[in-house]
Amino acid sequence: MGKLLKAVGASAVGLVAVPAMAAVPAGVETVFTTAATDFGTIVGYGWTLFLVIVGGLVLFGIVKKVISRSAGR
Fold first, then answer.
1. pLDDT bracket for residue 24 (50, 70, 90)
2. Number of structural domains, the chain?
């Protein structure tokens, strides 16, 4: 049974993906760096828009509540 476990363990280690260490052209690295920077910028704009929308909805709810209480409800 011990030999079977060792064989299974050895084959499982062989299935683990090992990253390839191939040479990457210089232009590709520049493209990926630029794309990552652009993606970060877009995500930043998205969060800003999201916060503005959610903040507006919260503010609208507060104003609505204040108006309804001042109307005598």
1. confident
2. 1
Asked whether residue 64 is assigned to any structural domain, the reply reads yes
Q: Which H or E run includes 19?
A: none
- Provide the token pair at 32: 């990926």
pTM confidence score: 0.50
Query: How far apart, in Å, are the Cα atoms of 67 and each of 51, 59, 61, 72?
Result: 24, 12, 10, 9
**Is residue 49 one of the residues assigned to a domain?**
yes
Q: Produce one character per residue of 2-30: b if its CB has 16 or more CB atoms within 10 Å, e if not.
A: eeeeeeeeeeeeeeeeeeeeeeeeeeeee
d(CA 19, CA 15) in angstroms, rounded, equals 12
